[in-house]
Specification:
Layout: H1 2-32, E1 35-41, H2 49-61, E2 70-76, H3 84-93, E3 98-101, H4 104-113, E4 119-124, E5 143-147, H5 150-164, E6 170-175, H6 182-195, E7 199-204, H7 211-220, E8 226-228, H8 232-236, H9 238-247, E9 252-254, H10 256-260, E10 265-268, H11 271-286, E11 303-307, H12 308-313, H13 320-325, E12 328-330
Parallel strand pairs: 1-2, 1-3, 3-4, 4-5, 6-7, 6-8, 8-9, 9-10, 11-12
Antiparallel strand pairs: 10-11
Helix pairs in contact: 2-11, 3-4, 5-6
C-alpha cells in the first residue's frame, strides 16, 4: 500500500513538472511573439520620413527593436487618399495590435476600419470637432494621442500675419477639403480675420497638381499674403509652395516645418517631437493599458520660427518684437 501511494505521488509530481514545463514553454513562446504595429501613412515614405523615424526612435528608447520584439507593418497611400480605406482594412486583417496614423485623413480611414484595435494619432485635430471625444482626460472609444490645437493655432497664424504686415487687408488660405479638420481651421481663421477687419479667401487644394491653379486664384483675388493650413499634402509640398509664394511675392505662414522649407513664418508645436511621443502611447497599449483611458495630450510648447532670408527676399521688415519672440530665426 505504501509502495502504491509513493508511486502515485511520484506520478503526480512528474505530471506537475511536465505541466509546469508546458506552461513555461507556452509563456516563452508568447513572450517571443513580436507585437505588430501598423503605420498608416497618406503621403510617401520620403515626405513622412522624419515622422516615421521619430516614432521608431521613440520605440527604440522604450526597448522595442524591429524584427525582435516588434514588427511594423507599413501602409502608404503615396498621396492617393482614396487608397486609405483599403490600406486601413489591410492593417486590420493583418491583426496588428496598434495602428499609428499619420494625419487626420489616415485617422478617419482607420476609425472607419476598426472600433476595437487601438489607434494612436500623434497630431490629431480638435478631437471634439472631429467626433473623436469631448473629453481629453478619458477619451473613450479606440483613439488616443496628441492634439495640435487646430483652431487655436490657425487663428494665431492670422494674427501673426497682421502683426508682420500691418497694412495687410486680404489673405488667401490653402486648405485640403479631404482633411476633416480643415473646416474647423477655416472657421477659426475666419473669426480671427473678421476681428482684424481682414478678408479671407479660401482656396481648396486636393493634390499637388492643383497648386498652380491655387496660386492663380490667390493672385486673381488680390491676396496680400498666404496661410497654409495644416495638412499632410502641404507638408509634402512645403518647399514647392514656399518657392511659389516667394516668386509670386506672397508673404506666407504655415507650420514651423514650413518656415524651414522656405516659408516666411512658421508657428506651432514641434510635430517630430509629438510623433516621438507617440511611441509612449504605443508602449502603454502594448503593456495592457486601455485606449479609452489614455488621456489625449496637448503640447505644452508652441514655437514661432521666422525665415529672415525669405522676408528679406520679399522686402519685408519683420517687427523686432516678433524676432525676439521667435524660437528660431533662419538667416
Amino acid at each position: 500500500m505504501a509502495r502504491d501511494q509513493e508511486a502515485h505521488r511520484s506520478s503526480r509530481r512528474n505530471f506537475c513538472w511536465t505541466l509546469a514545463g508546458v506552461v513555461v514553454a507556452l509563456s516563452a513562446r508568447a513572450a517571443a511573439t513580436p507585437a505588430r504595429i501598423g503605420f498608416l501613412i497618406p503621403e510617401t515614405r520620403s515626405a513622412d520620413g522624419s515622422r516615421i523615424e521619430a516614432v521608431r526612435a521613440g520605440l527604440r528608447d522604450l526597448g522595442y527593436i524591429e524584427g525582435k520584439n516588434i514588427v511594423i507593418e507599413y501602409r502608404l497611400a503615396d498621396g492617393d487618399y482614396s487608397r486609405l480605406p483599403q490600406l486601413a482594412a489591410e492593417l486590420v486583417n493583418t491583426k496588428v495590435d496598434v495602428i499609428v496614423t499619420f494625419g487626420t485623413k489616415a485617422l478617419s480611414a482607420a476609425r472607419n476600419a476598426t472600433t476595437s484595435i487601438p489607434i494612436v494619432d500623434p497630431v490629431m485635430g480638435d478631437p471634439a470637432l472631429s467626433g473623436i471625444s469631448t473629453s481629453f482626460a478619458r477619451p473613450g472609444g479606440n483613439v488616443t494621442g496628441s492634439t495640435l490645437y487646430g483652431g487655436e493655432v490657425a487663428a494665431k497664424k492670422v494674427e501673426m500675419l497682421r502683426q508682420a504686415l500691418p497694412r495687410l487687408n486680404k489673405v488667401a488660405v490653402f486648405v485640403n477639403p479631404a482633411n476633416a479638420s480643415s473646416q474647423s481651421q477655416v472657421k477659426a481663421m475666419r473669426d480671427a480675420a473678421d476681428s482684424l477687419s481682414l478678408q479671407l479667401q479660401v482656396v481648396e487644394v486636393r493634390s499637388p497638381g492643383e497648386l498652380d491653379a491655387a496660386f492663380a486664384a490667390a493672385k486673381q483675388g488680390a491676396a496680400g499674403a498666404l496661410i497654409v493650413a495644416t495638412d499632410t499634402l502641404f507638408r509634402a509640398s512645403a518647399s514647392q509652395i514656399a518657392e511659389r509664394a516667394v516668386a509670386q511675392r506672397l508673404p506666407s505662414i504655415g507650420s514651423n516645418e514650413f518656415a524651414v522649407s522656405g516659408g516666411m513664418i512658421g508657428y506651432g508645436p514641434d510635430p517630430v517631437a509629438l510623433y516621438r511621443r507617440g511611441a509612449y502611447f504605443v508602449d502603454r497599449l502594448l503593456k495592457g493599458a486601455h485606449v479609452a483611458d489614455l488621456p489625449i495630450e496637448r503640447p505644452t510648447k508652441l514655437d514661432l520660427l521666422i525665415n529672415l532670408k525669405t522676408a528679406k527676399a520679399l522686402g519685408i521688415v519683420i517687427p523686432k518684437e516678433m524676432l525676439l519672440r521667435a524660437a528660431e530665426v533662419i538667416q
